[in-house]
């Protein structure tokens, strides 16, 4: 048999498994398993999109955890995290005092340097208030992601 030859499904099965009788259940199981395997290139779901940047829920959780840990240890000063005053008037689902901490594309956790445009907002109870960005905002303002 040549590799370029196209065979009906039943002939393909019997050529691969010559001593095993064909059963519908076997074929269904064989081919269902092939199609159920996720591919490495599969896109992950975006929990938030800031401009064109997709953030997964795990990236948001990692940024929130890092920011909250620093804030809870008393390291909230003029750097990050720092108090977010909500000058834009967002209606967050949790009460504040709010803090902002950078969230970086690619899932890296901010550890200094340029913070980029995007932030997670959280309160002192380690609750996510939202994700905001400078991208698409006027001046130094933020818009919601």
From TrEMBL:
Q: Which GO terms describe its molecular function?
A: hydrolase activity; ribonuclease T1 activity; RNA binding
InterPro entries in alphabetical order: N1-like (IPR000026), Ribonuclease/ribotoxin (IPR016191)
SUPFAM superfamilies in the record, alphabetically?
A: Microbial ribonucleases
Q: Which CDD domains match?
A: fungal_RNase
Q: According to its UniProt record, which reaction does this protein catalyse?
A: [RNA] containing guanosine + H2O = an [RNA fragment]-3'-guanosine-3'-phosphate + a 5'-hydroxy-ribonucleotide-3'-[RNA fragment]
Instruction: State its Enzyme Commission number(s).
Output: 4.6.1.24
Name of the protein in question: ribonuclease T1
- Species of origin reads Penicillium atrosanguineum
Q: What is the lineage of its organism?
A: Eukaryota, Fungi, Dikarya, Ascomycota, Pezizomycotina
